[in-house]
Amino acid sequence: xPRFKNxxxxxxxxxxEEETIRDAEEKAWNDGALDRALDDLRTKxxxxxxxxxxxGASDQTMSSDxxxxxxxxxxxxxxxxxxxKVEAKEFPTKPE
Length: 96
Hints:
The chain is mostly helical. Helix content is 54%, strand content 8%. It has helices at residues 16-31, 33-50, 64-75, 83-88; strands at 4-7, 10-13. A hairpin with a 2-residue loop joins strand 1 and strand 2 (10-13). The longest helix has 18 residues, at 33-50. The chain is elongated, with a radius of gyration of 22 Å.
């Protein structure tokens, strides 16, 4: 299916060279989907870890439930090798 561009309000079909360039751009974007999904997951994970970092201070006692929770957060990205797996991954529940 041909693609078009808008030039000064006029709809113009892309040339073969422009189609090739656009195909390469789309392939590069699609190839980076897993990296983008993992980056998003890590950003969310890091925010959750940051909210409990104070518990790691020397004057605090961290419960075993909290230690397990934090380890589960750190382990989140392991084994996620497709966008679908990343999107389906659920974050652990923070203990009280």
